[in-house]
TrEMBL record:
Lineage summary: Bacteria, Pseudomonadati, Bacteroidota, Flavobacteriia, Flavobacteriales
Species: Aequorivita iocasae
Keyword ATP-binding: no
Alphabetical keyword list: Membrane, Transmembrane, Transmembrane helix
Keyword flag Cytoplasm: no
Name this protein carries in UniProt: Beta-carotene 15,15'-monooxygenase
Transmembrane segments: 23-50, 62-85, 105-122, 128-145, 157-173, 179-197
């Protein structure tokens, strides 16, 4: 066996080990749907729930409670869609949806995300509303980057983009809805479309 054959075998073994330790069934379509849900949610919030000029959104108002319900609905729809499409893809590829890699992926994703969620609730409870959108984007980006080591793909780049847009949102108060729309809507659609095209080619 030549040196080139040895190198090829080592490369294949390394690739197999890498794939076995990473979750590979994330669906690109789920990213597109998550982005569409976020844009629809932002449009509903802008038209029906956001305060008019001269008005304020307070913690105990009905509009604020409906806004939280809308955010929760967008998150739940995104998670359910991601679960269904990812399960479908895993079955098609004859892969397990739940194993040690999936557990590590979820733990690493949820730690920054839950920490950020609790921090935002604490700030809202003390009537600090202004940085909510930027904090959501930053902690979500940190969660993606933290979980990316257990996925095949470019999730970390989506995470970096969310962190950057979150910091810009913090630096430019008053445009939270638009940065939220850009980060959770457009970025997800772009990322999901890139992943979907790669899936179709492979």
């Amino acid at each position: 066996m030549s040196d080139q054959d040895y190198l090829k075998d080592i490369s294949e073994i390394k690739n197999l080990m890498n794939r076995s330790s990473r979750f590979i069934s994330l669906s690109g379509l789920s990213g597109i749907f998550a982005g569409v849900y976020a844009i629809l949610g932002a449009a509903i919030a802008y038209i029906y729930l956001f305060p008019k000029p001269g008005e304020f959104l307070t913690l105990h108002s009905w509009n604020f409670k409906l806004l939280l319900a809308l955010l929760a609905s967008v998150a739940i729809l995104s998670v359910v869609t991601a679960y269904l499409l990812t399960t479908q893809k895993a079955k098609k590829n004859n892969e397990k949806i739940w194993d040690a890699t999936t557990r590590r992926l979820l733990i690493n994703f949820l730690i920054p995300l839950v920490t950020g969620g609790i921090y935002i609730i604490i700030k809202l409870n003390s009537q600090h509303y202004g940085l909510s959108a930027s904090l959501m984007l930053i902690f979500y980006g940190l969660a993606l980057v933290n979980a990316s080591k257990y996925t095949i793909g470019n999730v970390k780049y989506l995470g970096y983009a969310e962190i950057i847009i979150g910091l810009l949102c913090a630096a430019l108060p008053g445009y939270g809805l638009w940065f939220w729309l850009l980060g959770f809507g457009l970025f997800h659609i772009i990322y999901g479309s890139i992943m979907y095209i790669k899936e179709r080619k492979s």
